[in-house]
Amino acid sequence: MPSIFRRSRAAVLAAALATPLAAQEVDPQPGFLDYFGPNRIGTFLANTAIAALRTQMELEYQHLSTDIMRGTVSISGVVARPQLPYDQARQCVVTVDRAVLQSDLSKPFSVASEAVLNLVGASISSACVPRDVAMALRGAGINALELDQAKLSVAYLYATGETSADLSLVANGIAALDATASGIILPRMDNFGAGDPALRVTRALVSLKDQGGWAKISTLLPPNFRDPATISAIGTEELTQAMSDNGQRNVTAVERNFIADLMARVEDFVATGGEITIEANVPPTGITVEPEVYRDEPQALVTTLALEARSAPLARSRILSTTELAALRDPDSATPARRLELGAALLEGRGVPQAPALVPDLLEPLVADPATAPQAAALIARALQDTDAALAYRYALAAAAGDASGAIATLDRLEARMTTQQVLAAQADNIAALTTAAGDQVLQDADDPRQLRAQALRHLTGSGAARSYARAYYFALLAEAAGDVGATSLRQEIEARFGARGPAVRQVWAALSRDLQAQALDAWLTRGLAEKFKTD
Predict the structure, then answer these.
(1) Are 338 and 328 in contact (CB under 8 A)?
(2) CA dist., res. 202 & res. 185, Å (int)
(3) Is the pLDDT of residue 437 over 80?
(4) How far is it, in rounded angstroms, from Cα 515 to Cα 31?
(5) What letter would DSSP give residue 503?
(6) Distance (Å, rounded) from C-alpha 266 to C-alpha 277?
(7) Could you tell me the pLDDT band of residue 35, with boundaries at 50, 70 and 90?
(8) Its domain of life (predicted)?
(9) What is the C-alpha to C-alpha distance for residues 254 and 299, in angstroms, rounded to an integer?
């Protein structure tokens, strides 16, 4: 070995021995908690579920990933071979490029509980269906059912109790099927207690779009069954028979019109392809279906839900035209009412691409007009709530002061995303900007301490007066001093609002409450409130 290498090795060894043991660098070792991380546990549970499935079918995959904090499990390169009684040769194969299971996507367990199963690039061999169906598919030239996407999502909204379900199936070269429904289960009582529930339906739609499937399947039918008029006549007869319950009930005019519209759509579908949509034309508040309807006379659902047979969903007929959207380029050309409508459409994505970021600039000029300020401020607050809670809160205060619908809930929602200091500062600025002296007028006109408590409650909630915890505390102190027995609990509620929020908030509230107590005492003395409310 050359001497230079011997000297180098000796130098390295000497340096290592001279380095203190605590200062020597080593490869990082996994910590105890690394073995129990959320994603590691999620992967273990997912593989446990897959192992259970393997007792029923052959199943393999290429990659699995979990993100428990976002509620996502993703599997790629799935190959499954189910064991089916009619597949004696074991030729059934199901492949999926990517399968994703998601839960509580955006705001876990705070707004809704939801679950989504999304299969992308799925292929189902013809051996996976019964033999007679497989023969018919092969006769139509379909050896495997190719699905670009198969997606099912189910959600439960906490605020309203609404349950919704959405299904999308896109079969490559055959058809696309979309279905959506949502509603609320309503309790009903009968003579024996809780009975069958009613349903408040807020959305119901089924849409079928031909993508070449009819051309393939029609080759298997006799020539007369490919004629649109023949199919329409047969369908009309069968549907009328079903609606009449085999002659046991009279078919209403609404039901006859629905059948006629549906068969007209079927004729177009058979003749030229296209789309068939059946949709319930319900108001935003929904339509209540009593149990007697869906249980005893389901045919009446056509009338109850105002079902329509259309060539496209109703949403497409409500798309805003270029003329209607002209206010986006020239807002001054539109009336205030039109600008408010356009702002709501941009916020909800109704008839136009959703663009809440454009709402503040569109509606800001309307905030200065008392006639439109509450509605404009409410829409701007909703547009900003996910990007700038502090700024949105200032608009929400103005909206609540004008009794805009939903403003109180917006205030509560935004306060949960702000610090107490930000909330108090925004409330103080809003009170200072008001030109009315409603509080002074209350002190002057009140002849019952309950009126002072009522003013405190209005300031606390923001309903009927600008939300201000400071002003609420001020009036609660005066009401309590005036002998109102309900004011004490209200004062304690306000004080509790600032408890258990850390030393910084405690210090801010201590200084603010001291000032408010001094103001209340000053008003008590200078306005002669003791003599005003004292009784024998």
Answers:
(1) no
(2) 11
(3) no
(4) 52
(5) H
(6) 10
(7) low
(8) Bacteria
(9) 11
Work out the average pLDDT over 377-385: 96
The secondary structure of residue 141, as a DSSP letter, is: T
Rounded Cα distance, 472 and 117, in Å: 49
Of the candidates 83, 82, 75, which has an alpha carbon nearest to the alpha carbon of residue 119?
75
- In this prediction, residue 87 carries a pLDDT of 85
Question: What are the residues whose beta carbons fall under 8 Å from the beta carbon of 146, sequence distance 6 or more?
Answer: 122, 123, 171, 172, 173
Q: Which of 419, 417, 491 is nearest to 456 (CA)?
A: 491
Nearest to 261 by CA among 220, 325, 306, 300: 306
User: Cα 389 from chain centroid?
Assistant: 19
Mean pLDDT of 170-178: 91
**pLDDT above 80 (res 535):** yes
Backbone angles phi, psi at 198, to 5 degrees: -90, 165
C-alpha distances (whole Å) from 512 to each of 218, 323, 473, 517 are 79, 53, 10, 9
Cα separation, 7 vs 226, in Å, equals 93
Q: Give the integer Cα–Cα distance in Å for 108 and 74.
A: 18
The dihedral formed by the CA atoms of 287, 291, 297 and 302, expressed in degrees to the nearest 10: 10
Separation between Cα atoms, residue 58 and residue 230, nearest integer Å: 46
Q: What distances in angstroms separate CA 439 from CA 431, 452, 472, one per listed residue?
A: 11, 9, 10
Measured distance CA(67)–CA(39) in Å, rounded: 6
In the chain, the amino acid numbered 396 is A
Only one residue has tokens 């798309």, namely 319
Nearest CA to 150 out of 173, 168, 174 is that of 168
Where does 232-371 show beta strands of DSSP type E? 275-280, 287-289, 307-310
The pLDDT of residue 3 is: 52
Calculate the alpha carbon distances from 385 to 350, 360, 379 in Å: 19, 12, 10
Dist CA 444 CA 387 (whole Å)? 42
Q: In sequence order, which residues have a C-beta less than 8 Å from that of residue 525 and are 6 or more positions away?
A: none
What pTM did the predictor assign? 0.78
